[in-house]
Amino acid sequence: MATTSFDICPSIRTRFDSPDETNGLHRVSPSSTERSSLKSWNNLPSLSGSQNLLESQLEYDNIEVQTRKQSRNKTRTINHITLGFIAYFAVAAGPFGVEDAVRAAGAYPVLLAVVLLPFTWGLPQALMTAELSTMIDENGGYILWVRRGLGQYAGWVNAFNCIASNICDLPTYPVLFCSYVEAFLASGYGYTLSGTEQWMQWSSVIMSIFVLAPFILEPLSVETFNLATWGSVAPDIEWSLFLSTILWNYQGWDSLGCVAGEVKDGGRTYPIAIMIAMILITINYAFPVGIGIMVQSDISQWHEGSLETIAMTTAPWLGVWVGVAAVVATLGEFNVVMACSSRALWATADCKMLPSFLAIEWERFGTPIAAVVFQTLTTGVLMNFPFEILVVLDTFFNNLTLLLEFFAFLRLKYVEKDAERPFVVPFGNAGAWAITLPKIMVLSGVLIAQKRSVWMICGLFNVVVFGTYLVWRRFQPAPQATRVSSNTTAYGTGQLLS
């Protein structure tokens, strides 16, 4: 006879019980890799037998639908070589766009940043991404990390700031594309660009070599090496433009988490890919700036498209190569960023924070087609804005999300310390803090350096985000207390059995 009192230990059943654990009290550790999104042990049913569903059922509404979608089998085809060059294109894809940083601050600050930023800015992002991507190996990346690590509200703020950052980021590539096409045509060479579409079908490895090669060969064409030009500093540094531009050229590491569900053997693939990308990115900026400033020492003449003009001055054939490489690089980076950011937008809709139609996928290929169309439309509108404004807004929104990502990373190190992590940041929690604190300092400094107008725009945006969150919560269905005889729970946390 079933008992209705709670004076005995209740029988609790979860979706993760093994066949031989069908009876008795069974708790699933919050750090279990098979668990749904729990916040802490406090979310587990107490022995007092409260009839209310757990807080996590309110905080992670519709988890059953999310779990079903996220657990769909994805073909894991991305290896360390492919991921390494995806990282290169997501972060850099050529030095194009760094010219504004040279004009704003001079060669010396930029070259100093090229040496320091890979370790103080890039590597912390990369290591965090590697650990979280192997711990939560699902497409969605930073959308899922912050939601799981910091809860629903932080996940909401992070998601919409990520979307804003991506919306501002994507139009920068058509702007750069047009700048280099304009410089290419102005050079007087009538080469056709009709083969570009075919080039985009090449592997990322060949594309990266093609983009980097002219800058590696450029020193061979320079007649006189004047290292004194490396010490040039702008008389009045534009800190906002310099910091935003130089950091924009190093951001994008966290986007690798958006394809985590398609990476093979993530514990091995991510660290190798990071090393490949770090080497390529350092060469990517050091060679063009170091050689270019020797050819054009007047920093006021540096602007979008200057690298092609400088190469043309050195050798006409080199200028043509740089122009074509710029076209290929900007198209390649646009495609990579679109692929990653559309999956983040898909994950936001999949978590019910945006209309569900944005989670529509192309059934045959698994492409988030609705998200791609949405971002294409916003890109078409915003590409008419000035490049500098897009970069500053993109960097500001991205910095806010990076702060949330690092806080989520640290919290998960403690509340889910036993979770399976195929890749772990070296030296445990101490290593996690070591890569996080410098990052927080850099992020804080960059945010403080922004102009008041940028703070107002981004601040008003987040006020709207907060208001929409309150409305969204208001219309969310309240959890219902139920007592059911069921083999499993929809939330993976357990219910009382009659």
TrEMBL record:
Chain ranges passing through the membrane: 78-98, 104-123, 272-295, 307-329, 389-412, 424-448, 454-472
Gene3D superfamilies to which the protein is assigned, alphabetical: Amino acid/polyamine transporter I
Ranges for region Disordered: 17-40
Keywords: Cell membrane, Membrane, Transmembrane, Transmembrane helix, Transport
Biased composition (Polar residues): 29-40
Presence of keyword Transmembrane: yes
InterPro entries associated with the record: AA/rel_permease1 (IPR002293), RMV1-like (IPR044566)
Location(s) in or outside the cell: Cell membrane
Membrane-topology annotation of the record: Multi-pass membrane protein
GO cellular component, one term: plasma membrane
Recorded GO MF terms: polyamine transmembrane transporter activity
Family stated for the protein in its record: Belongs to the amino acid-polyamine-organocation (APC) superfamily. Polyamine:cation symporter (PHS) (TC 2.A.3.12) family.
UniProt protein name: Amino acid transporter
Annotated source species: Peronospora destructor
